[in-house]
Amino acid sequence: MSSRRTPKTEAARGGRPKDPELDGKVLDAAAGLLEELGYQELTIEKVAARAGVTRKTVYNRWANKSALVGELLIRNAGVEHIPDLGDTRAEMRELFAQIVRDVGESRGRLLSSLWATIGDPAVLHRFRTEVLGPRRQFARAAVQRGVARGDLPADIDVDLLIDMWSGTVMFRTEVRSDALLDSQADAMVELAMSGCVPRLPAPDAPEPTP
């Protein structure tokens, strides 16, 4: 027996068949209101009115405001592959540039909304799975290519390096509200290329005492 789902069976299960055009209309309305009002003042009622649909239409697709805004954040988040350029320095610069772009795209109202929706476990799980996970996978692949070429240490702690770069960009641009210059980004890359990177502990290294 086929397990293929049809719009009728989806509706019978309590779901709502996908309508990309309608979903996009609602998400666009939410994006506009989010920019104008911020997360706290955003309501499902206002989104429905802006999109020209009923509240029920919105609630049939998203259980609450955090789920709706979480969907918007995921839709607007970029997940880019870092191409194999055959040049570790160039690929590390591209990786750093992507981190800068990712933070820049999340600024202002959108960034505040991300912190607000993180309190919803379902939204956080989706954001980790559909955005952060793929971004980290592409970043790790670029760093590992550098290791394979002998340009980066074999024991580099890839995840900590990426977190350090992301944290530096976030603190400088969001907390300090200061521009990150191209020369400063290049300096961070050059530190990594010179071997100044976090290292994984040796397999037989003793655990640090508290």
Automatic annotation (TrEMBL):
DNA-binding residues: 43-62
Keywords: DNA-binding, Transcription, Transcription regulation
Compositional bias ranges of the Basic and acidic residues kind: 7-22
The keyword Cell cycle belongs to this UniProt entry's keyword annotation: no
Region Disordered, annotated ranges: 1-22
Ranges for domain HTH tetR-type: 20-80
A Pfam family matched in the record: TetR_C_11
InterPro entries: Homeodomain-like_sf, HTH-type_TetR-like_transc_reg, HTH_TetR, Tet_transcr_reg_TetR-rel_C_sf, TetR_C
Domain of life: Bacteria
This protein's name: TetR/AcrR family transcriptional regulator
